[in-house]
Design goal:
five-stranded mixed sheet
């Protein structure tokens, strides 16, 4: 592990006010509200509020997901919460004057995945104390280059080159293409909570986030449901001491509760049809937003909101990347072996994390192929290499041999070097979908791994990182929902209530 902002990232005690999901909540609020009501001049005024930054560094990146069998494409948005202290408003909400001028950290990071068919939305949070690799990044503004790090705290990516470095870090971590980012800071949360009229949250016992040595958010709530507004909403979102076991995970779960509740309020609260309230919320939110250069107007945000609105709340799943305690520091986390990859694999395969929708199971009956197996030209590529392991030798040849036993006598190896990726059946527009399904079925590959692709000229089998042995695609590589350790919260769950940490009741 190499250095970089060590005075901030190695302390085990979080700095006051660093909880930033409220900023991500602000981004969601803008998306839910859409584009404002006051004419072209006001529209241009709101556009002027929005800050822009680069989406990626150009030297990193993952290819955009191929369309599914129906030609639909998923969308991935990185939500970032900055702990920036470089303006008076943010500083007033927490932190010390000595922190002015320090590079901001991304203390909240969430990947929002919108399924290709727009039937489900999945959100994966990454606790800020998680140790992950960081790529080499050059800040596009200062031109300073930060070297790659084998392990560093996840929140340091923002300080290593801005939002584009966070995007590069997430693409490397998840092997998922990111289409957009939205970053928000402290100042919008109080006004936003007031504009909404309050966000209902719940605690199982009377709760008081305060320790004798001065730590804690100061949140004080009676048992049951309370509609939090203003600074009380801020306190809820930054509470660590007082929820569950007093760790970052408990705080993340509380933030999920707030976000899902806020989205329901935005959708259900009729008072938000009031133009004055809408205008106030739009003004506050756009001032807090920094977006990528492809999402830099209210119109583009409005178009994105229309895509997000297609998802019913019962098909919204909030999750946390499964983690385990790091062996070198009990105050730090690392991605949990097995479970973390299982969760991210579902995202890459465009499957709902709670099993409620998405690409869905394969049809009970595969349509009859349009052409005989022996007439189809199929190429097989070895895409089984991972970041830590080389491709398995001979994988393409093993799969070709199985295809030939199933009658696909024209199947052949394509030996070109192929980056590691998930297993998929790719087919061009000239190949009937039924032919692709039949070829996939011969190998045990489910229909939801079919991808229509303009990048191939014939039927193509990618033997991926999730299929490094055997000639039939293994059934256990087809999870139906996220592991229990991901702590899924459904967007329609109005009964969620935070457990209170022992010693933090009154």
């Amino acid at each position: 592990m190499t250095g970089g902002h060590r005075q901030r990232t190695k302390t085990a005690t979080p700095r006051k006010g660093r909880r930033a999901l409220r900023w991500s909540a602000g981004a969601v609020a803008v998306l839910a509200l859409g584009g404002g009501t006051a004419g072209y001049a006001y529209y241009e005024h709101l556009n002027g509020n929005i800050k822009k930054d680069e989406l990626n560094l150009g030297t990193h990146g993952v290819a955009k997901a191929a369309p599914n069998a129906e030609g639909q494409t998923p969308m991935n948005i990185l939500l970032l919460g900055s702990d920036d202290r470089n303006n008076a408003g943010n500083l007033k909400l927490g932190g010390a004057k000595k922190e002015v001028g320090w590079a901001a950290l991304a203390d909240v990071q969430m990947l929002l995945h919108l399924s290709a068919d727009r039937k489900n939305m999945s959100v994966v949070s990454l606790p800020r104390d998680t140790m992950i690799p960081l790529p080499e990044c050059t800040d596009p503004k200062t031109k300073k280059t930060y070297p790659a790090e084998d392990l560093d705290m996840a929140n340091a990516s923002l300080a290593h080159g801005g939002p584009c470095c966070s995007v590069a870090t997430w693409e490397a971590l998840t092997r998922t293409h990111i289409d957009h980012f939205l970053m928000v800071d402290f100042t919008g949360v109080v006004s936003m909570a007031d504009a909404i009229g309050g966000v209902p949250v719940c605690v199982k016992e009377n709760a008081y986030s305060h320790t004798p040595d001065g730590h804690g958010s100061g949140l004080r709530l009676k048992a049951g449901t309370t509609s939090v507004k203003g600074e009380q909403a801020l306190q809820w979102l930054r509470t660590r001491y007082g929820f569950e076991d007093g760790t970052d995970l408990g705080r993340t779960h509380a933030q999920h509760m707030y976000m899902t509740s806020m989205v329901r309020e935005l959708c259900e609260n009729a008072t938000l049809t009031n133009p004055g309230r809408m205008r106030s919320l739009a003004e506050t939110a756009t001032k807090a937003l920094t977006v990528d250069d492809r999402l830099d107007t209210v119109k583009k945000l409005y178009d994105l909101s229309n895509e997000l609105r297609k998802v019913p709340s019962k098909h919204i799943a909030m999750t946390t990347l499964p983690t385990a305690q790091w062996s070198e520091d009990h105050n730090r986390l690392v991605p949990k072996p097995g479970d973390a990859e299982a969760l991210l694999s579902l995202v890459r395969k465009d499957q709902a994390l709670d099993g409620s929708g998405g690409a869905g199971p394969a049809p009970r009956k595969t349509p009859a192929p349009a052409h005989p197996a022996a007439s189809l030209g199929i190429q097989v590529l070895n895409a089984s290499g991972t970041g830590a392991e080389a491709p398995v030798r001979g994988r393409a040849g093993q799969v070709v041999a199985r295809l030939k036993t199933k009658g696909y006598t024209r199947a052949e190896i394509n030996a070109q070097r192929t980056p590691g990726q998930e297993t998929a059946v790719l087919f061009p527009a000239s190949v009937p979908k039924a032919d692709a399904q039949a070829a996939g079925k011969a190998l045990g590959i489910p229909a939801d791994l079919l991808r229509k692709s303009a990048d191939v000229s014939r039927l193509t089998i990618l033997v991926g990182t999730d299929w490094r042995e055997d000639t039939a695609y293994p059934a256990e590589k087809q999870p139906k929902k996220a592991p229990d350790s991901a702590a899924v919260l459904n967007g329609e769950d109005k009964g969620a209530c935070m457990p209170v940490q022992p010693g933090f009741t009154w």
